[in-house]
Each structure stands twice: as C-alpha cells, then as structure tokens.
Amino acid sequence: MEEDIENNVIKGPWKKLHVKQPEDIEAELEMKMEFAEDLTQELIVHMVQMCNDNKITISDGKLINDLGMIIEFTKGMVYRGMEIPYPTQNIVDRFVDVAKDSDGATHTDVNMEHLSRFIELFMLEDDNDSS
C-alpha cells in the first residue's frame, strides 16, 4: 500500500502562482480610470470642436449644462468598455433598449416616455423637498 502512495506522488517544480496584491489591483484600477478620463476628455474636445465648426457655440448656460451631462454619460460609456462601474450606466440600462433588425444591424431606442415619467417624478419629489 505504501508503494502505491509513493507512486501516486507527482513531483514539481511547480510554477509559482502570482496572486495580485490589493495595492496592485488598486494601482491597475487607477491607471484604467486615468486612461478613461483622458479618453473622455479627448472625445468631448472633438465634439466641442465639431460643434464650433458648425456654428454651435457651447457658451450658453443651457448648452454648458447639456455638455456636463454628455461628459458624464460619455465617461460612463468609456468606463463600461473598460469594465469599470459608473453611476450613469444604471440610467442607460434602465432607459435604453438595444434591438437588432432583420438585417442584423443593431439599433438603440431611448424610452422617452419612461424617461419623461421618471423626470416628472423626480421633479415632484424635488418640489416636495423644497416645501
């Protein structure tokens, strides 16, 4: 019986398994987030330049508000592409449906009715908080 045990032993050498340390994981996430910030900034700069080229100046207060939202949603898209969670992703998941047509082309559909109801509820809640 002892011979069977000795014959069943598999001898190394074994490759050392590298386990990522929390510091390594945090540093990697920080690098990804910095890259995402830079990419978002580049995308937004190009968009603003295209707007300016087409006589749409982003200096009006409301357009600046629009741009602020676009920046956050763009960041959410970039983060999602890098598998990093971001709060705007939840909003997109709730209000945007993706479908394929018969040709296999992918289309998105923003549920504007659902979004409008949500905004109304949000504004109503905001009004109640002000009272």
Describe, in short, the structure shown.
With 131 residues, the chain is mainly alpha-helical. It contains 5 helices and 2 strands.
Number of distinct beta strands: 2
Mean pLDDT across all amino acids = 88
Run of helices and strands: HHHHEEH
Fraction in beta strands = 5-15%
Which spans have pLDDT < 50 for at least 5 consecutive residues? Answer: none
**If strands are numbered along the chain, what order do they take across the biggest sheet?**
1-2
Give the overall shape, derived from the CA principal axes.
Answer: elongated
**Over the alpha carbons, how many angstroms does the gyration radius reach?**
25 Å
Q: How far apart, in Å, are the first and last alpha carbons?
A: 84 Å
Could you walk me through the main structural features you see in this protein, from its secondary elements to its overall organization?
The chain is mostly helical and 131 residues long. The longest helix has 32 residues, at 22-53. It has five helices and two strands; from the N terminus they run H-H-H-H-E-E-H. It has two domains: 21-85; 96-131. The chain has a two-stranded antiparallel sheet.
